[in-house]
Amino acid sequence: MEFKEAVKIALQSLWANKLRSILTLLGVVIAVTSVIAVVTLVNGARTYVTTKFSRYGADVFTVSKMPQIITSSEEYTRFQKRKDVLFDDYLYVQENCKRCVAMGAMQSTVGLIVRGTQSVTDTQIRGYTWQMPSLQNLNIEQGRGFTEADEQHASRVCIIGTDIQDHLFPGINPLGQEIRVDGTPYTIIGISEKQGSTFGQSQDNWVGVPLTSYQKNYGTQKTLTIYVKAGSSGPVLDDAADEVRVLMRSRRHDAPGAPDSFELDENNTLVGFFDTITNSFGAVAGGLALIALVVGGIVIMNIMLVSVTERTREIGIRKALGAKPRDILIQFLIESGTIALVGGFFGVFGGIVVAELITIVAGFPSAIALWSVLLGLVMAAGTGVFFGVYPARKAALLDPIVALRAD
């Protein structure tokens, strides 16, 4: 029998027994949907995190009061008891670090931005030293960034995200215009490139002001994050990080042998930690999907056994007309593989739909990986073939004389 004819018979069988076909395919559809949805969401999250941290560059590390990733409430409570990282700490490290190519600091809070009768709420207000935008690879699309003079004189100038431009200056060039940041007037000197949204939260609803100006309004005795550029990754980065660690421990009077009273985070470490988490999550989800796939395969095997029983006389006629056992075996394997592959197609579509719905509703990033689509289809077809071997072999070994006597 030709391959095309065997596929045609399989599809006709599916169409002739619609309810049975739906129940047969359900396990495969659920399994493939799970695989595609999980891989799509994990791939989206990994892409986002990698992009977020790599934006700072592989040669940039941070010093802060608390780590950027906290895994328990106990850790949060312990880190909260640490002393704040203050502006004086930043100045001390800046003056004494010999291996640091560039350095900046940032503080942030959430506030209200007003222009005339219009306002934007829940805006992130960032206090930047003048080098910070370049350390974060933040591109200024219009206007300019901060200068050292802006920082020294605590100038009331600011850089805005595109959300501020869209909401407060529709159709108007905001450069040179004035806005009020928590009641303080600032003149707009730059507009950042659009960064989009992640996890349902816009990344463009922010205003950056010189750190010295920021501290005049919000105080100096609040923790900040220090960004350090080493100039190169690898040993150069490690040497710079070690020097900064020694300076910070000396500045904060950490006792010999005692743990650091601050956190020094490297981007590669953070990305690696997140990869470990997502890989573990993917492994667990993959295991559950595999169980669903096995259940679907058992259902396919059961239905194929029923099909062999129903078509015993047909098998006998084919053998009487010259079909070899190998032909019968291949026919039923193609049928079981086709049934599973149809379930795989529905599963791929369902997985993409589920992932996109989660992205729309929860803002969780997703990114469709072609390899996951191919993997889902291969898994489905492989399941159909594997669990179709026993029914196909049973059909191939039927005695044609006994088969022709069947009702």
From TrEMBL:
Transmembrane helix is among the record's keywords: yes
Organism: Edaphobacter acidisoli
Subcellular localization, as worded in the UniProt entry: Cell membrane
Main location: membrane
The protein, known as: ABC transporter ATP-binding protein
Residue span(s) of domain MacB-like periplasmic core: 21-233
Family from the record: Belongs to the ABC-4 integral membrane protein family.
UniProtKB keywords: ATP-binding, Cell membrane, Membrane, Nucleotide-binding, Transmembrane, Transmembrane helix
Transmembrane stretches, start-end: 21-42, 281-308, 329-362, 368-390
Topology class, membrane: Multi-pass membrane protein
Key word Transmembrane helix present: yes
Cellular compartments per GO CC: plasma membrane
Superkingdom of origin: Bacteria
GO molecular function, one term: ATP binding
Segments forming domain ABC3 transporter permease C-terminal: 288-396
